[in-house]
Fold each of these.
Amino acid sequence: MQDMLDLMTSPQLPEFTVTEISAEIKRYVETNFGKIRVKGEIFGAKRADSGHWYLSLKDENAVLTAVIWRGSAASLSIKPEDGLEVVVTGRLTTFPGKSSYQIIIEAMEVAGTGALLKLLEERKKQFAAEGLFDQAHKKPIPFLPQTIGVVTSASGAVIRDIIHRVRDRFPTHILLWPTPVQGAGAEIKIAEAINGFNKLPTRPDVLIVARGGGSLEDLWCFNEEIVIRAVYASEIPVISAVGHETDTMLIDYVADKRAPTPTGAAEFAVPVRNELLAQVSSLNARLLNAGTRFIAEKNNLLQGLARGLPNLEQILAEASQKLDDRTERLKIAFQNLLQNKLNQLELSGLKPYHINNILEKSQENLNHLLLRLESVSVEAVLKRGFAWIKDQNGQTVYNLPQAQKAQKLEVYFADGSLTLDRTRQTAASSTKQKSGKKYDLQTDLFDF
């Protein structure tokens, strides 16, 4: 590079191609700036389809472009995000295609807890505005779950604490979905575990997402958007148990129940079996006592009512006596009524035989009327040679016009009846006309 500077200051300026200049600058930058650490605020962070990250670091006066290759991005402890102040470690190089210089980031850490807390507060406001933390969305934790799903590391003390606590309180089937709980990509695995539990044919009744204590950076994966949305979309109730009681992550706001510790989550998930047995025993004793008191009270009430009832035999005896008395009085009253009527008849001058004469006379008149009625009955009239004619509707035919209008006539005699049908007469009239005979319509109405 010094040779180039010397040549540039000499009277005879050398000529370089663009590629030669770019290569020389690249060699100078990479030689004099090996691994370096740079502090700045991320902005314009974007992940390409290839898996590489492209972003910029800025401070009050300058901007430095940066790139994170896919292999390095997978091992980062935090995800690049706009507004996050970080300290990155990497190599300075140039990009001849754009005549720019950039840093290739190999490691990234948060510049300070204050930066993370600021980012945490911004995310909290964003998710709250979307309604992800609303109480109306919270699902109740089942009282006695048949299966408990746990999302945590398989090798940590957390799962052992949960199993031990559940067995002590109320032994229940526990299903573990092992995941990393810190570091690059942990948030993806945690979200996949929550979604996976929800897709099982036989799902757990409740989920516990748990991790032991640690720094804010260690617990940061439980503040990532992918985890928050997975918990919000879960149809299974979720208990969050991340860190210590003083640690509050965004997952605690979206979960259906927040436990201060993983052991506390186990206590929220299942009740104490012995306490339930004692409670059931107490309730059973109270039920028996209440039943005994109820029966005793009803028995006392029944006995009191029984004492107020009169003797049944006495009631029946009195009723029977009253019936006998009324029967005897009725007989006497009827006899007195007859005697009074006889006395009235005697006083009026009528004797009993006079009454018999009146009754006999009335019977004779009645018999005479019956004979007269019988003489004018239909049967008696028919026996004297008369006939009774009815039309097809059962109405009596009194004259010739009515008979001419009828389609059918029923003629009743004393010893039987005869049916006359006009439809048959039509055929008979036609036959008679062909033979040359004439018939009077008034006398030849029906064909017998």
Amino acid sequence: MADWTKNLPEAARTYIEGRRLDEVECIISDLPGIARGKAVPAKIFARQKVFHLPDSIFFQTITGDWSEAAGQEGFIERDMVLRPDMSTATAAPWTGDWTLQVIHDAFDRNGTPIPYSPRNVLKRVVSLFNEKGWKPIVAPELEFYLVARNLDPAEKIKPMMGRSGRPAAARQAYSMTAVDEFGPVIDDIYDFAEALGLEIDGITQEGGAGQLEINLAHGDPVELADAVFHFKRLIREAALRHDCFATFMAKPIAEEPGSAMHIHHSILDQETGLNIFSGPQGGDTDAFFHFIGGLQAHLPSVTAMIAPYVNSYRRYVPDNAAPINLEWARDNRTTGIRIPLSDNPKGRRVENRLAGMDCNPYLGIAASLAAGYLGMMQETRPSAQFRGDAYAGGEVIPRDLATALDLFDEAKDMHEILGADFARVYSIVKRTEYQEFLQVISPWEREHLLLNV
């Protein structure tokens, strides 16, 4: 065993202990959140300090086509320098041999972080908090569906078959019997997560047919985004072992609720370790209200990051477990911004319920933190706390990707937070995807327009 393995995280060391490590996957997240990279023999990884990938991986759309986002030099596919973050080394237990995966950070040849690498975008936002003496803390909730294998895109997505031999049923939220239907898949999810050293705070059945939610313990934003990045992959692999698919689409089944990635936020003072959302007597602070005000003021401009596809906007349906506006309230799941119950003032946090599970976790968390940060910098006051059912209010969030991208392009103060080069590339890639979508004729159009117009 090579010396470099002695300094791996504990879970990775445990995974390969007494075994011959065959391969290391050098991975990085692209804009959609797909793992890109190279698999290299372990002995090669041991002696290479960096490896290279073309920057064009960030110019590619979800369909695999290319956008015109390369900049003034043109599409020359310049190599990036990718450096491993060894603190992220984890097992890849679904592979056929003994394999580790390591997340890498992207730099140019001068050592400058690539501005449109999603992990670098999140690190940039976190650094702004750190410069103010703050430590942001997040806790994401992951909703997803286990569905029957779907090999024909023209066919509707259907719930998976449970162990009872019946399709998963809807409207069974928090049912332990419903969770048991997916027992073998969930067992593999737990086993994979343990091998990776990832902590699951709990798994529950959600309201959709075959819809589950995984809660993660709160912590550092970059570490939690890494965890979600890994979880999406391991959940898919666990599902494939049991002849079903895991999907993180925001709205995979028309009649069922959508899947969100709710993001809980709190901020600690770096010197004292205290939650700055709570005052000395346990009351709400100005920072708490300004963070909420920032979410209300700026989430519309980054909706294209937390709802990145045309399908994302199908999730925002009244009375269907998804917000339609940016009202805030305490312990009220109909509002876009919720203040959950906490056992004590130290646990006071703000929950953003707008983000979809289809977003890139690095970009979704970065967008949410950036909105709150701007609110704190601009001392933005929120609206009055909402009382009652927020679905009775009007819709104030963008309802389609084109509108969201227009708002994103206009938000110059947000571009300063996220990085101007990132904003440029992201907008071009997403608009290219949208144009690709507009070229597709849907079944609805064929059914209702073919002979009637």
